[in-house]
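Lesson 9: reading folded outputs for more than one chain in a single document. The general rule is that every protein is listed as its sequence immediately followed by its structure tokens, and records are never interleaved. Here is the first one.
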Amino acid sequence: MLINFRGYAVRPQLYPELGRKIYKNIFERDNVFLGKDIARQWCVERAIPMEKALIQLTGKNFSFEETYPLLMSEATEIQENCPVEMEGRCALDLIYGLCEFTKATKVIETGVAYGWSSLAALQSLQKRGGTLYSSDMPYVSRNNDQFVGCVIPPKLRQSWKLFRQADREALPKIFKEQDRFQLVHYDSDKSYNGRLWAYDVLWNKLETNGYFISHEIAENAGFMDWVKKNNLIPIIIELEGKYIGVIKKNALSTHKG
């Protein structure tokens, strides 16, 4: 904990998040995994493979690695040489495929780490002069600031805007620049309450016929409860033991779960 306080001390822009973390550690320690067993079973019963999901969503399959082998090789080498360990790549085919399918020009993501999801989105967005808006809360105990997004090559960074704060501070700043998006990709605060707050905010900024993606939805009941409350019909994808939820904005009907 001392290391964390030192990390926050040199980052005044993160003081609000420090206050929230202190509160969570005192009063909401069980919130992170609330309803995990029920949520995981719910995901298991509904999950389909990535390839099937892409065909269902877009009518075709996408393989980011096969389409851009050199880009993937260079990015993998950068990750392997990075001195700070962060979250790795996940769902590149889904992010790239939906950007291509929607011909997206405005995409927002929460959580960057090495920048794999950012790389997939930017590779599509740059074809149309689009922009990716990213919020990222640094790993303050690991001092990873300079390595956030490290796998993104310079040629793609002109289409990228990074906001280095927690979602509650970063998202309002992003919305001042752009408040409508064709794709939302959520991969940041995975606590139960954190999800419920961010889901509502981001969903309201998603254009009709746009797509909402959330990662690791079996870690608690946040995603499950949110889709039930709002009568949304998600597609659940199983990928390497983890679960991803995808919802099309106009796909509204009574949930049958």
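And here is the second record, again sequence then tokens.
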Amino acid sequence: MKIGVNALFLIPGEVGGTETYLRKILSKLPQLAPEHEFVVFANEENRNMLARDLSEYSNVSIIDTRIKATSRLRRVLHEQFVLPKVVASQNLDVLWNPGNVCPLYKHVCPYVTTIHDMQYVTHPEDFTKAGLFFMKHFTPKAISKSDAIITISEFSRQEIVKHSKVKVDRVHVVLSAVAKNFSNSMDLDFIKERKLALLHSTDPYLLVVANSYPHKSIETAIEAFGKLNAAGTMNLVILGRPRLGEPAVQAAIDALPDPSRVIRLHYVVESDLRALYQGAAVFVFPSKYEGFGLPVLEGMQAGVPVVAAKIASVPEVGGDVIEYFKPSDSDDLVVAINKVFNKSDAQREAQILAQKQRAERFTWEESAKNTLAVILDAAALGSAANKAKKTKKSNHKDSSVPLIGTLEN
């Protein structure tokens, strides 16, 4: 079977958790299904990265579409009007679209589309006008045009069903995961060295990992930090790029008695990310809306006590092993963090162990296996439908000849 993968949406370092999602699952699929061929449609920004990710597999080919995805309009036009022709030329059995959008105007083979969440409906403030226009136009149509939908949590499935006309049995939940190396304890001297190099401080810190979109509610963590850090002995580390919620974040920082205690990092390599998690006193996840909440799982796996807003999909990930607080309530966040601080060493270690044990249930191998099952089912149904269509057409041609002759007589 020939399986296509539409990776045109992926701009390395820019699309957040959807990049991790695609790269981790895609790197597992060829190994899980060596009997199948995978054709990946890449853009100028991701072609080299994907080639490195998939270099060990002989059953993978990468087609460079030569499109620059940083131009959203150009990418969308290419995806809608050029990609279907390329897909048709490859004689694919099915096309997986992992980035919320599929080709709409020419259905050349069965489509499976991953819809990560319905954030554009519930939190439109997270999008530029152009971005919101494209999401409103393309996402509902992608849902209706796709032969099967994959999403990343039961919460997201209910959101998709609620905000579209799709039947619930067409939406398949495939949970995301976290890399196993997050659970590997790093050398304490290495963590100390990386903390000093990145933060220029050895003081204890709270960690937040999020781009500053409005729904991430980073300002809630900053306000709570200000109430906790009256003595000025802790730092708050925020790892993420500035986005549309940046004015609220900056205002919250400016309101602190000592804004210099907030350390901003835009990007770090994975080894430094793991070091930051493992070196933190508490990982705080204040987001008000998540299709999955990958950083929660990363923190759980890395062995840092996790405190998160109890909302959306987060309880599906954290279960009863992390601490929760009311969304956007900085006072309640202070209570939750203090609850962690007030635990004995034994209680803290018990929480960390419970978090790791729960996190081990989420693996990219399982995610890839379940994704492949949905893709193959859609391909099989599409093949059966095409055969039935051809049979019907053939039967119709056979019966139509004498009928036309009779009319002419």
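What the second record shows: Residues 396-409 have pLDDT under 50 and may be disordered.
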